Amino acid sequence: MKDLKPILSTLWRSKSAPLLLILQIAVTFTILVNAVYLIIQKEALLIEPSGLDEEVIFTLHTNVQSSEAEEMIALVKQDLRDVRALPSVENVTVMNSFPLSDWGSYAPTGLGPTEEDMNIYTGYFTGDEHAIATMGLELIAGEGPSEGEVQDSIDFSADTTQTVVSKGFAELYYPDDWRAILGTTVYLNYEPFIVKGVVKELKSVWPGWYSHANTVLIPLRHISSNYKMLIRSRPGELEQAKQQVVKELMKTPGRHLDKMMDYQQIRTDKFKSETAAIKTLYWVIAGLVLLTLLGIFGQARFTVVKRRKQIGTRRALGASRTDILRYCMTENAIVTSVGIVVGVICALLANVQLVNHFDMAPVPVVYLFQVAGVILVVGQLAVCQPAWMAARVSPALATRSV
Amino acid sequence: MLTYYFKLAWLSLRKTPLLSVLMVSTIALGIAAAMVTYTVSYMKTKDPLPAKSDRVFTVQLSVWGPDQPYRTADGQEEIPEMVSYRDAKNLKMAGKAHRESALGLFKMMSRAEEQAQRDAQMRMIRTTHNDFFAMFDVPFLYGGAWSEQDDSAGNQVVVITKTLNEELFDGANSVGRHIILGDALMQIVGVMDDWFPIPKFYYLSSHAYRDPESIFTPLEYQINQEIFSRNDVTWACWQDIEDVAFSDFMASDCVWLFYWVELESGSDRAQYMDFINAYVEQQKQAGRFARENLSRLFTIDEYLRWAKVLSNENDMAVWLAFAFLLACLLNCMSLMMTKFYGKGSEIGLRRAVGASRHDICWQFLCEAFLIGLFGGLLGLLFAQLGLQLVQQIFTYLNANIMQMDLRIMLMTLGLSIVTSILFGLWPIYRAAQIQPSSQLKSL
């Protein structure tokens, strides 16, 4: 610590070079904190569970070769029976849209039937009595629909009066005790529905949507000229199940299959822009760290070259190599720390802007400490070589050319 | 004299190669990062139809039912961005605009006539009127748009894209040949040349960065054939649609079409809006349009802003990149500081033999200029590599976004030179302050 005073007075006497470094570190710090925070937020979105057992599920679209309502329903039921009978298939259901798949319906929702009551939009799914088991949703209260309660819907027409809701949905209206929603009536699209069950998690088709966690699942077999099937394979038999399903369905002449995708694929597709943004941010961080490393290294080397004579004199006057080494490292630590302090202020200011302009949550303080730690370590690493160079300056240098 | 300074600057750069390379590449890195993100953002948000930016409009009608608004956003009632077939037909019949087209979409298995049935592929088919092509300045490679007659009769004709033509017909002139949509034989009347409007403004915002559909066919064909892919396209109704009959759906207020008009000039906007209001009034008499009339026209730019196609993510990337550039410039500034300090004795000597501070400043300004120039050139190279990389990462975006035009290239060079000089000013000022006496002593 006895170095502290001479270091400070040296820095004060030639301010410009350290000042630049301080500015650079502050800017770096600002970008790093916000970039790291963005990455963490986006990665959380990537791994957020949808509520489905994604590793054993795949989906497809297929056509119905009839335009008569009765016949269409019979054909679809037959398809479902055929697929369910396959050895590698555990269960199958027909839905209107699939979570995370980007195309789906939403419904204005409220506790009453009037326009004022409709205070939020919720994700709207339909499925038959196998939907909950096929998706692998965890039913945490009440019950799902029985076979007799599922209605057939040609092109969205049907009068259902009950629904299963997600826990997120229940907590919207009963924040203190979500179980209280069981048996109550909610209004979807201005129509009354009795809540029969609550599932722990069922996400909407649009990640990042404000109402992503709030969904309802209506007992409907939703059919039109083509329909959407969600299939659950037996564990580890996803590929066999896919092949068997294609083979089975293609037995019908004139059958079209479309968009056969397993859930990993749906997830990857849905989050491609986030994944891309994360990759870009990693590049930014790598670039910045490298740049800072170079900046500090260059600066430290320059200082050492400039001070060779002084260092020689100190050595001649009895300073050990460790003293010189410590002097350089401490000096760097001080400059970096000042940079970080300025950086914290800039980062917070920048974050306020980000919060205002881009609807982001403010950065938690813990990130500030973590990034500060990283920069300090990077700074010390960068200064190692120049400090070592300084320590090796020979005392004899002081005696020359004075 | 300037030539001499440039020569000095060049020699000085050559004398400390490592430091020069560091300075130039630091600037290049920052410039490249800034320009790559700027390019992507600029290309994503530039005007897709600049020649008609003030006279092409999309029409939005207050068609919703009496009980509830279509949607509310921030407490404000929103009207649908799409129109019903009924209204589209009425507007088209009235023919008040110079050019006008409704835009629908459906999904169908499609193949070339020569292909086997199992080679058929599911494709999205764009349905529209023939004005679409002229209104949006769509270039044609072979043939052209279908006729008015095809429009009104709903004939089995299609226009296909160059990409599809290459896929199905190896790029040959396929006008007069056929493709099969579902079971129907469709005659090709036109093959489009490359046409990738960015953003793809004419349909839903979620489609803004997808390529145009590969097959276009008359809207009336879709109506005649009673095709509607309810599970695959976006639509909305305020009425309960208990009845499944196609004709009832088309006669309803269900919205599923975009409606675009081109007027003779931008000043006709008010006049056309009067026509729309009169139309709404007339429909109100007939018992439709029960809500307050919020109908409106949007230019392409207004629509894209309203639909939030110009996303925040982009702006954020640009801000990050420019902050990165700032860090690079600061780094380069401290390197220049180092460099000029090292030249203390040379400056002292030059000053002692008669150079003024002014001369010293000019000499170093030339050096900063050279650094900026080389940094800019190298930055351009890095930026091209960066754009390649971005293309690898953002595979889902149209590749045409990742291209610099001449204006951006010149901007890159300019930015590099200007910022290098700007950030060189302080080091230069410090260098010019050096006293001849202090340096000459130790020589």
UniProtKB/TrEMBL annotation, chain A:
InterPro entries recorded: ABC3_permease_C (IPR003838), MacB_PCD (IPR025857), Macrolide_Exporter_MacB (IPR050250)
Stretches that traverse the bilayer: 20-40, 281-304, 324-350, 365-384
Keyword Ligase: no
Claim: Transmembrane helix is one of the keywords in the record: yes
Membrane topology term: Multi-pass membrane protein
Domain ABC3 transporter permease C-terminal positions: 285-395
Top-level taxon: Bacteria
Family stated for the protein in its record: Belongs to the ABC-4 integral membrane protein family.
This protein's name: Uncharacterized protein
Originating species: Pseudoalteromonas rubra
TrEMBL record, chain B:
Compartments it resides in: Cell membrane
Presence of the UniProt keyword Transmembrane in the record: yes
Transmembrane keyword on record: yes
Name of a matching Pfam family: MacB_PCD
Top-level division of the source organism's lineage: Bacteria
Transmembrane intervals: 20-40, 317-342, 362-387, 408-429
Keyword line: Cell membrane, Membrane, Transmembrane, Transmembrane helix
Residues in ABC3 transporter permease C-terminal domain copies: 320-436
GO molecular function: transmembrane transporter activity
Domain MacB-like periplasmic core stretches: 20-274
Primary residence: membrane
Membrane-related topology note: Multi-pass membrane protein
GO cellular component: plasma membrane
Protein name per the record: ABC transporter ATP-binding protein
Species in which this protein is naturally found: Pseudoalteromonas rubra
Taxonomic lineage of the native organism: Bacteria, Pseudomonadati, Pseudomonadota, Gammaproteobacteria, Alteromonadales
